[in-house]
Amino acid sequence: MKNKNFIWKNFFQKEKKKKYFIRLIEKINKDINNNKIIYPKKKYIFNIFKKINFNKLKVVIIGQDPYYSVNQANGLAFSVMPNIIIPPTLKNIYKAIKLDIPNFRIPNHGYLINWVNEGVMLLNSVLTVEKGKPQSHFNIGWEIFTNNVIKIINLNYKNIVFLLWGTYAKKKMYLITLKHLILTTSHPSPLSFHKGFCFCKHFSKTNKYLILKKKTPINWNIKKII
Questions:
Q1: Distance between CA atoms of residues 39 and 49, nearest Å
Q2: For 8-51, what is each residue's pLDDT tens digit?
C-alpha cells in the first residue's frame, strides 16, 4: 500500500488556504474570545485526524456534531473521555454491538480510541458546537471541510466501509462511489434506536466485508479502564 500521509498533508495545506476555512476558524476564535464555551476544547477539534492512522483506514462512521455538555466532546464522533458518563446514544451503540456480536463485552467507559486504532474513523460532519446548543455550528463551513474529507477518502482508498446512521448521515451517500460499502440505518439516539439501528448488524457486516476484501476485521471490543 502506498503511504497515504502525503495525501492528507497536502489536503490540509490546501484547505487551510481556502476562504471558507479561514472564515470558519476566525468565527470559532471570535466566539472563544467573546467568552462563548465551545466544545470540544480547541486542542481536540481535529483530534480524529491526529489519532487515526491513515494507512490503516478501513471504516468511516459519520456523526453530526459533537456532544454539547460539559467535558463530553473529545474530537472523536460518539466518543467521550474515559471518566465521563456514557451518553445514551453510545449506550445504544454498545447494545446493538452486543446483539450483533455475542462475545462483545460492554465496556465501563465511552472512550473509543481502540476503534480508531483499529482503523475506524469517527468523523463528525460538524467539528464544533456551542455549549448547550446542539447544531449551533451547522452551516458555518464545517460541512464543506468534512465533505471534502469524504471525497478524499472516496478517491484515494478502496473497499472502505461507510456507516451512515440517521437521515443526516445518509445525505452523504452521494459523495461515495460503488468501490466502497455503504451501510445505512436509523440513528442510535434513544428517539430512533428501535427504528432499525437496534438489529442493524452493521458491525458483523463490516467485518464480513473486510474479510472478503482480505482485510483484517475490526475488533469492536474496547479495553476496560480500571
A1: 17
A2: 999 999 999 999 999 999 999 999 999 999 999 999 999 999 99
Partnered with residue 130 across adjacent β-strands are: 38, 133
pLDDT digits (tens, 9 = 90+) for 161-194: 999 999 999 999 999 999 999 999 999 999 999 9
100 is catalytic: no
Of the residues 24, 62, 65, 118, which is catalytic? 65
User: Which pTM value belongs to this model?
Assistant: 0.96
- Residue corresponding to grid cell 445504544: 92
Measure Cα distances from 135 to 6, 126, 184 in Å: 32, 8, 22
| Beta partners for residue 129, in sequence order | 39
Beta strand 59-63 with 161-165: parallel, antiparallel or unpaired? parallel
Q: What is the DSSP string of the chain?
A: ----HHHHHHHHHHHHTSHHHHHHHHHHHHHHHTT--EES-GGGTTHHHHHS-TTS--EEEEE-S---STTT--SSTT---TTSPPPHHHHHHHHHHHHH-TT----SS---HHHHHHTEEEEESS--EETTBTTTTTTSSHHHHHHHHHHHHHHH-SS-EEEEESHHHHTTGGG--TTSEEEEE--SSTTTGGGTTTT--HHHHHHHHHHHTT-PPP--------
Q: How far apart are CA 53 and CA 51, in angstroms?
A: 7
Q: Burial of 199 by CB count in 10 Å (0-12 exposed, 13-18 middle, 19+ buried)?
A: exposed
